[in-house]
Structures are given as structure tokens and as C-alpha cells.
Amino acid sequence: MTDVSIECVQGDIANQPDIDAIVNAANARLMPGSGVAGAIHSAAGPGLAEECRKLAPIEPGQAVISGAHDLPNRHVIHCLGPVYGEDEPSDQLLADCYRNALSLADAEGLESIAFPAISTGVFGYPLEEATRVAVSVIREAGPGLAHVQRVRLVAFSEKDLEAFRSALGQ
Ligand code: AR6
């Protein structure tokens, strides 16, 4: 059992060199897409899509782990978030993403993990609600983790960072 610290920063999920695992807001086929998936695959190089082919497809709420290829991290954890208003119950499926990603990182003995705001882009999940789900799952899961000590939430814009800060009560 560790004391998990949660921090939030504004930045690019593909540029978090001091973090063991970054999380991808993936599509079911784990192929490069727009947004987070585009940024991660282009920074990781074609080897990531190659490895991901064997891990796909995944279901909403599921997470799988791969190598990081040309990224400066140790692993990428790919989560398929719910499409808001379509994959129900959205809040539980989103919570599953965070819970499953934390478990995979912990099982791998990793100490740090960075999340983007899963589902809040193309998949349409309202950001404030999504960040509240993220923070409550991380706080709930924290005491049960053996290795993960640091969780970073990466907001893409200044406005998104404000939402993360308010969900964290900062
Ligand atoms: N770093 C951090 N956050 C980012 C970045 C980045 N480089 N780029 C975008 N965001 P999205 P989803 C923010 O659409 O909603 C893809 O095409 C963005 O502003 O990447 O889970 C996949 O292939 C938003 O707040 O993920 C899937 O088909 C959040 O990250 C689908 O989109 C998530 O946006 C997944 O949709």
C-alpha cells in the first residue's frame, strides 16, 4: 500500500518523459487516430501500431498494455473510453478505464502513470463530469496499489486544466 499523489499539468500526453506509463485514449482497433491516439502513435513510431495489432480489438472500459517504442516512457496503456450517450453506463465504463489502467500499471511494478482526459474529445464526454470520475476512481484505487505512487492528469488546454484543478479541489 502506497500513498498516491495526484498532480495535474497542462501539456501533451506524448511528452511526459519522467512518467513510466502514459495512457492512450484509444479506438477499439488500437490504431492511430486523431487527438491523443494520433499524438501517441506519431511520437512512438510505427512499431506501436504493429504491436497493437495483436492486442486489438478492445471493449469500452477495457485497458491493455504495450511497449512505448520511440516514446521516452516504459509503457503505453491503451484505454477505450465510452462514446458519451452511446456506450452505457458511461460513468461506469469511464471509471473502468481508469481502474483497469491503474491495475495494469501496478501489476507491471510501475511507479508513475499519466492520463489524458479519456473520452472528452471525439467521444464527447463533458469534461467536468469526466474529471470528477477520474479523480474519484484514482482516490478510491490509491490505497490498494502496491507500486503506483504518482498519477498525473494531463490537460490539453488552460481551460481543461482549470477543470482538473477544480475536480482535485485545488
Ligand atoms: N495531449 C493531451 N491531451 C490531448 C492531446 C494531447 N496530445 N490531444 C488531445 N487531447 P481524444 P476520446 C485532449 O479525442 O474522446 C481518436 O481519434 C482532448 O482535448 O483524443 O477518448 C481515437 O482514435 C480531449 O480533452 O479521445 C478514438 O477513435 C482528450 O484529450 C477517439 O478519438 C481526449 O480526446 C477517442 O476519443
Automatic annotation (TrEMBL):
SMART domains assigned to the protein according to its UniProt record, in alphabetical order: A1pp
Highest rank taxon of the organism: Bacteria
Q: Specify the Macro domain's residue ranges.
A: 1-170
Q: What is the name listed in the Swiss-Prot or TrEMBL entry for this protein?
A: O-acetyl-ADP-ribose deacetylase (Regulator of RNase III)
Which organism is the protein's source? Marinobacter persicus
Q: What is the lineage of its organism?
A: Bacteria, Pseudomonadati, Pseudomonadota, Gammaproteobacteria, Pseudomonadales
